[in-house]
Write a structure and sequence with these properties.
Layout lengths: L1 E4 L12 E3 L2 H8 L5 E3 L2 H28 L7 E6 L6 E6 L1 H10 L10 E2 L4 E3 L1 E9 L2 E11 L1
Parallel strand pairs: 4-9
Antiparallel strand pairs: 1-2, 1-3, 5-7, 6-8, 8-9
């Protein structure tokens, strides 16, 4: 069955791609969870307009981030997480938690795609986080303390 993906789905494809998947997978998993729609002429045209709109919005957001990237330099973000006596976090800090912390402190709403983080942070202390938009980068400090 041909479907149009409405969200990124691991091991299947990215948003707005047309994929051929098993009927059961489409009918029992992708379509009920709104991850995909059946591919037909009207849906294809609708998704194409959504793709163009999404690309334009992403370009505008990227331009805004480029202008305000210097505002992140020198920012210190403080997060409190549960940790043991040795300073190891019970749960790693991911890009999404960093984005939420920045938003909570009143900074720009940065998509997690632009934050460079190889793996989740699992240690209490001070960490340098890099934000990369196109070819420009900015660094800010992330201080994680035990709760």
């Amino acid at each position: 069955m041909k479907v149009i993906l409405l969200k990124d789905v691991k091991k299947v494809g990215k948003k707005f791609e047309v994929k051929d998947v098993a009927d059961g997978f489409a009918l029992n998993f992708l379509i009920p969870r709104k991850f995909a729609e059946v591919s037909n002429d009207s849906n294809t045209r609708k998704v194409e307009t959504l793709r163009v709109r999404d690309t334009a919005e992403k370009k505008i957001q990227e331009d805004l981030l480029m202008k305000n990237l210097k505002g992140l330099e020198g920012v210190t973000l403080e997060l409190k997480e549960n940790a043991n006596d040795k300073g190891h976090l019970f749960k790693g800090v991911h890009k999404e938690e960093i984005v939420a912390g920045l938003k909570k402190q009143g900074h720009l709403d940065i998509p997690s795609d632009y934050i460079v983080l190889e793996k989740p942070i699992k240690e209490v202390g001070e960490h340098t986080i890099e934000v990369k938009v196109q070819d420009k980068t900015a660094n800010f400090k992330l201080v994680i303390s035990a709760q």
